Amino acid sequence: MTGPLDGDALDDIRRELTLLAERLDRLPDDAFEERLQIRMRQDELRDVVRRHAVAGDLMSADQLERRIDDLRNRIQAHYGNRIAHSSGPQTGLGGGLDPKYLFQMNRAMDEAGDIEGLKEELRKLEDRLRTMRSSE
Length: 136
Known about the structure:
- By secondary structure, this protein is mostly helical.
- 71% of the residues lie in helices and 0% in strands.
- The protein folds into two domains: 1-58; 59-136.
- It is flat, with a radius of gyration of 22 Å.
């Protein structure tokens, strides 16, 4: 599903999620395969809603501001947790971490924390908030 979610599409997703939750509740405890299939479908539907909510289409200005603040804090915390050039044992003989490995470790941390995804989401939400405010 691409483009913005309209009210009807969102209602359809909510209805399906409700039906899936009801089916899940009625399943016997040992219906592992069916449970897995239902949970996978729930995840797919939630992902559709999340992608659209991330773009700010389903958020009020207050919600956007809170999400923007949260993202800024997460990004700041991420960079605060990076490994510094001066990390590692200091022997007085030029010790510390090899810059090549330091760069690789920080890059791996960026990828694991999806820092680029967070920054992209932040840009989209800031754009959406600016658009909302300019149309008021």
